[in-house]
Amino acid sequence: MTLLEVNLLYQDLGISEKVFPFLLLNNTRGYKNQMSIKNSPTVRFIKNHQHKVQQNIYLLCSKLIKRAEEHDKSKLQEPELTGWEEMDKEPRSEYGTPEYFEKQEKYRWVFEHHYRNNRHHPEYWQGFLCEMDLIDVLEMICDWASFDNMTDLDAIKIIEQQMDRFGFDGLLKSLILNTFKNYFCITESEKEKIKFNEKWGDLINKNSIDIELLKKYFD
């Protein structure tokens, strides 16, 4: 993928200026490089480094998109699907409550099958959490962040529950909390507006990125 293609992608997603601030769209939908620099050895070294970093980032993006496509597929396949449908005959309980963990224990076989087939769950690693990689962790964060309309306080509650449950260290806790705050959380006032009128949800959703558009560029 060229810089032009990437910048077009991020422009379509509304975030082009954050990614390549030195490239501007001109009136003919071409790009002008704001920096007029000579092709010295230093410049060539820097550009080569930039290219390598970009390729690494594209690689990780492609892996995350693959995870997005395959997330929780086992829930829609047997034997899990029957188990989840059986569970949903009973009232759903809020995550982290005693009722939630009682239900989890009752349907342990469903959860154990799910954990064995989905490596973003810490339980997949059976105590060897040090073998998780950052792609696993990022999918795990996205999984935890799937609750609707989370505020910073909601995020802190969820993350602290999970930290205690899985024994993650303080540095990872800070990284996850910062990610929640920067990309997934809304303010208390926004949450109140959503409660008042659901149409506000579309106005403040920070995650409304077209996955099909991303796939087209990173396949």
Number of strands: 2
Largest sheet: 2 strands, antiparallel
Compute the number of helices. Answer: 12
N- to C-terminal distance? 10 Å
Beta-strand portion reads under 5%
- As laid out across the biggest beta sheet, the strand order is 1-2
The helix-strand sequence is HHEEHHHHHHHHHH
Helix/strand structural class:
mainly alpha
Low-confidence stretches: 15-32
The oligomeric status of these chains comes to single chain
Instruction: Tell me the helix content.
Output: 55-70%
Count of spatially separate domains: 2
Mean pLDDT rating: 80
Round the Cα radius of gyration to an integer and report it.
21 Å
General shape: globular
Would you kindly provide a written description of the structure presented here, covering whatever features stand out?
The protein is built from twelve helices and two strands. It has helices at 3-12, 16-19, 41-70, 80-87, 98-106, 108-116, 134-144, 152-166, 170-183, 188-196, 200-204, 211-218; strands at residues 23-25, 31-33. The chain has a two-stranded antiparallel sheet with strand order 1-2. α3 packs across α12 and α5 crosses α6. The longest helix has 30 residues, at 41-70. It is globular and about 70 Å long. 7% of the residues are buried. Mean pLDDT is 80; it is low at 15-32.
